[in-house]
Automatic annotation (TrEMBL):
Keyword check for Metal-binding: no
UniProt-recorded name of the protein: Type IV pilin
Archaeal Type IV pilin N-terminal domain: residues covered: 4-78
InterPro entries, alphabetized: Pilin_N_archaeal
Keywords assigned by UniProt, alphabetized: Membrane, Transmembrane, Transmembrane helix
Region entry Disordered, spans: 141-165
Domain of life assignment: Archaea
Amino acid sequence: MNDRAVTESIGVILLVAVLVVISVTIGSAALVQTNAVRDQGDATRINVKAEVTDSSVTLRHVGGPSLDTEDVLFRLSGDGGRVGPYTLAQIDNDEANGTYLDISDGSDTFDVGDEVTLNHSFTGYIDISLFDSESGDLVGGGELVYGPDGVDAEPSDEDDDGRVP
């Protein structure tokens, strides 16, 4: 009796099974990567202009969507420690050492033209962070680092995924 035909059939079935497993693995990996890219693109970003003095940092909203003042945290880190994080609502309600200037309609949103200021006593480099209170995502396009000369200085210590620790 000839059993060779059975061996060939089993070999073909095993090859097809291996190809199915490889295809499913590659397809799953591609879907996970696609979702990661989509999730990263959903983060809200605004444009801010920073003005740094010896005693304060002011951020002006110059472009992008309006954000709820309860959802945005402002933090300064420097050689003498850290100031904040405070929500913009806390700064507006005089619960922090700073000011909030709402030039629009007096709403509870951080709109284009609004300014927020935090006072500090740093003498060296200052890391300026404006981020979402729930997710920790930076909303100002990245951490701003200023040195004694007022120019961008050393790189920040933010996580690789853009989240603030």
